[in-house]
């Protein structure tokens, strides 16, 4: 009798352990919070490479597709996806914008989420041209913002805030950025993920991660 009781108790303990382990594995892990030290050094300005916490997207002042000057205050307490493109790009940019249409559709009407597309050719991409491009891609102006403005400021944001590109430069006349990266940013302006904007599979992952981030406590 004693041995049977022991077997039952042992079995119950094992079952309890398996149930606990299942729920621990099943519980969603939060998305990583990226700091400069976590990234490929080629993406990070040498003065930032040893920063291991508290990185935030810095303040900016640029012009949206309606011709209004905006700062990043319009992103306060928002989850958003940032990218860098130009309207005359014949290669990756149309693919990226089509993928962002999918992202917009997935969160249509969600006032807590935004998409922010920065032109890397502001000398050509005026607010009016960005407006035409936004219409072409059925961008909801309440959710998808296109930005132009000072080239040096845009390029500094790309390199020193979003870590979107490996190239170096200061945004001068001959400087040029071309990247397929989408960057996911949380409500506290922290980077939470990088995605290939030309890949449907990776954009599916982005959509799933946005949902996960929205549920994060």
From TrEMBL:
InterPro entries: SCO1/SenC (IPR003782), Thioredoxin-like_sf (IPR036249), Thioredoxin_domain (IPR013766). Disulfide bonds join 89-93. It comes from Acidiluteibacter ferrifornacis. Belongs to the SCO1/2 family. The keyword Metal-binding applies. Residues 51-215 form the Thioredoxin domain. Cu cation binds at residues 89, 93, 178. One of its GO terms (molecular function) is metal ion binding. The chain crosses the membrane at residues 6-25. Pfam families: SCO1-SenC. This is SCO family protein. Keywords: Copper, Disulfide bond, Membrane, Metal-binding, Transmembrane, Transmembrane helix.
């Amino acid at each position: 009798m004693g041995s049977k009781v022991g077997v039952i108790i042992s079995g119950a303990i094992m079952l309890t352990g398996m149930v606990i382990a299942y729920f621990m594995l099943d519980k969603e892990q939060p998305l990583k919070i990226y700091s400069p030290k976590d990234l490929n050094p080629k993406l990070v300005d040498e003065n930032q490479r040893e920063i291991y916490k508290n990185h935030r997207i810095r303040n900016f002042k640029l012009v949206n597709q309606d011709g209004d000057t905006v700062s990043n205050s319009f992103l306060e307490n928002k989850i958003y996806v940032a990218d860098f493109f130009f309207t005359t790009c014949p290669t990756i940019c149309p693919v990226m914008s089509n993928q962002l249409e999918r992202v917009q559709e997935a969160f249509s009407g969600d006032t807590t989420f935004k998409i922010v597309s920065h032109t890397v050719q502001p000398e050509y991409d005026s607010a009016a041209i960005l407006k035409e491009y936004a219409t072409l891609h059925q961008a909801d102006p309440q959710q998808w913002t296109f930005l132009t403005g000072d080239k040096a400021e845009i390029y500094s944001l790309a390199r020193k805030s979003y870590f979107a590109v490996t190239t170096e430069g200061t945004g001068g006349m001959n400087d040029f950025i071309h990247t397929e990266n989408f960057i996911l940013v949380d409500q506290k302006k922290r980077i939470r993920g990088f995605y290939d904007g030309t890949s449907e599979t990776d954009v599916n992952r982005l959509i799933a991660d946005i949902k996960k981030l929205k549920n994060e406590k």
